[in-house]
Amino acid sequence: MVSKVRSIGLFGLDAYMVEAEADVCSGHSVFDLVGLPDSAVKESRDRVRSAIKNSGYKYPAGRITVNLAPADVKKEGSMYDLPVLLALLIAYKQIEPKISLEDSIFIGEVSLDGKLRPVNGVLAMAISAKENGVKNFFVPKENAAEGSVVEGINIYGAETVEEVVSHITGFTQLEPAPEFDRLSKSSDFAFLDFSEVKGQAAAKKAMEIAAAGGHNLLLIGSPGAGKSMLAKRLPTILPEMTFDESIETTKIYSVAGELEPESPLITGRPFRSPHHTVSSRALAGGGTIPRPGEISLAHNGVLFLDELPEFGRDVMETMRQPLEDGRVTISRVAGTLTYPCEFTLVAAMNPCPCGFFGHPTRKCTCSEAAVRKYLGRISGPMLDRLDLHIEVPPVDYGSLKSTQKEETSEEVRARVNRAREIQNKRYAGLGITCNARLRPGMLTEFCKLTPEAEGLLKSSFDRLGLSARAYDRILKVARTIADLDGSELIGLPHIAQAIQFRSLDRKFFAG
Ligand SMILES: Nc1ncnc2c1ncn2[C@@H]1O[C@H](COP(=O)(O)OP(=O)(O)OP(=O)(O)O)[C@@H](O)[C@H]1O
Ligand SMILES: [Mg+2]
Ligand SMILES: [Zn+2]
Predict the structure, then answer these.
(1) Closest by alpha carbon to 10, among 117, 120, 104, 106?
(2) What is the pTM of this model?
(3) Which regions of 198-334 does DSSP assign to beta strands (E)?
(4) What are the DSSP calls for 490-502, one per residue?
(5) Is the Cβ atom of 13 under 6 angstroms away from ligand 1?
(6) From ligand 2's centre to the CA of 369, what distance in Å?
(7) Which of 31, 263, 268, 444 suits 224 as a labelling partner, its CA being 20 to 30 A distant?
(8) Could you tell me the residue range of the domain that residue 282 belongs to?
(9) Any idea what the CATH number is for the domain that residue 116 is in?
(10) Using an 8 Å Cβ cutoff, are 436 and 475 in contact?
């Protein structure tokens, strides 16, 4: 008898339906398993064999053939243990399902003693399973909460093979996982707040503009000036995540195996800060079974690159295209695969190797050539993608000791939200969500200037010798400053402030 048990597979974030077909016939005792990569086959066979015996069932005598269809897609190994095992038991008439298995799928690695071990990617699978009309999804217990985020599909979490068998043979009933409470919020950043940063009015304003328009930001300052402190608080002033954003980001964490069981849905914007020794692959994603990289784990959140000049050239190069596109494409033998990566980039650096170039009181000990070489490590195209450049001076003693109440993240976020609403309306249906993503062809339509603003922009260009590439960014940033101001026209003060965020070009980068 040939049995069929349904399952599901993932390629990146895309799921496809899988079927385990088993056949047992008389003959020599062999176990053929096709449709898995060679390396995974042996291990899977061994686990399934032991799990069957140790769960109290008879291991089929004779010739066993199991096919995981579609056979032309190379599947990740361990998560098909459960459907393979069930297909075998049914084919060998060890068990007789009392429920229809047509609209059920099964996933899970089995241990030798018949326990179910969690797998990666259950959220993306559950979403796709539901779209494919699947009603019941059997997963290892640890994955149940994650699956329950999806409405309209029963998620059954089981600890052992026996529990699953007992359910499908009608002896005992597994309880579907309780519906996920969509209103529960994790409080990842509850302990961080903008009000902890004393003084630094200019830097904070720049962060607010970055948050409001989705702009990437470069912070330059001496050691201890508070660059890291500021960067870590950017997620606290970004708009709260929408449910859809939460789902998108959680899928990536789930596939990467980085989801914490206690918070099955990511509701706080991610903050990723890879060390400068990070490899291109760890940053962009990759591997035999391509895993999302840091830039995708930062999707809908913040990627912080501390000590930017220390990052390898190739690493910075890897980021260029994804930064532009908001998604990263990874090429594999099996085909290309895409992960989203829309994040706000915050880069921080010292102004020179010793860290004190331009410091109000300390003396820089670096030679001019050393300073130039250090700054030169950041390529023009990289600088191009950082809309706002801001110098973070050391906080003065007066501000640090001041008891004056600083603005809280919540207060800043309220302004950010208002500016975002304006952008959402303006760009509805255009495929972009914020000013930072304005395409060159859109600038004339959406960045209209008053005559005075126009005049200042022109004279600044002539006077400061601004590059053409600085032009677009000044306009986009000015657009955001005007939005924070509630003004549809970009006026003189908006342009003036935007130009200031380019002044470091000349001080540090001579461009
Ligand atoms: N404006 C400020 N208000 C309150 N505390 C501050 C401020 N600036 C700096 N500090 C204190 O100084 C510490 C060092 O700041 P931070 O680590 O952010 O500096 P940094 O600019 O990232 O330095 P480095 O270049 O060494 O990485 C902070 O943890 C904080 O305790
Ligand atoms: Mg730091
Ligand atoms: Zn120096």
Answers:
(1) 120
(2) 0.89
(3) 217-220, 271-272, 285-286, 291-292, 302-305, 327-332
(4) B-HHHHHHHHHTT
(5) no
(6) 24
(7) 268
(8) 194-416
(9) 3.30.230.10
(10) no
